[in-house]
Design a protein that fits this description.
Blueprint lengths: L1 E13 L13 E13 L11 H14 L5 H4 L6 H15 L3 E7 L6 E3 L6
Antiparallel strand pairs: 1-2, 2-3, 3-4
Length: 120
């Protein structure tokens, strides 16, 4: 099985609905990293994983829809990293059907992962 991981980066602003103490939070800028893992059982006639062009479409979607935006204005949900990861998985899976996992980070040490099944 062939696997490809593609990384995308964007900067956006968000305000979480509530923090753990129940206080409203202010808007904050975040540098997001999104990694998508796709797989293919075989290569296409040119020796590539066919899904690579579809992954680029997802990258374009990120740039067009979330880069530089206030995420609270884009989404109808609280834009936590967990919620964004699940949403991005759905968008990516619709564009790149071979997607098996999406992970998102807003800092250098923590990643949130979403997949329909445990990664292989």
């Amino acid at each position: 099985m062939f696997k490809v991981t593609r990384k995308f980066c964007f900067r956006a602003t968000r305000s979480l609905a509530r923090n753990h103490s129940g206080e409203s939070m202010v808007y904050e800028d975040r540098d997001y990293k999104v990694e998508v893992l796709s797989f293919a059982e075989k290569l296409n006639g040119f020796g590539y994983i066919e899904d690579c062009a579809d992954l680029e479409r997802f990258g374009a979607w990120l740039q067009d829809n979330v880069r530089g935006r206030k995420l609270n204005d884009v989404f109808m949900f609280n834009p936590t990293t967990e919620n964004l990861t699940r949403y991005f998985f759905g968008v990516c899976k619709s564009m790149a059907p071979a997607t098996i996992l999406v992970r998102v980070s807003e800092d250098d040490v923590t990643w949130i992962t979403y997949s329909l099944q445990e990664p292989r």
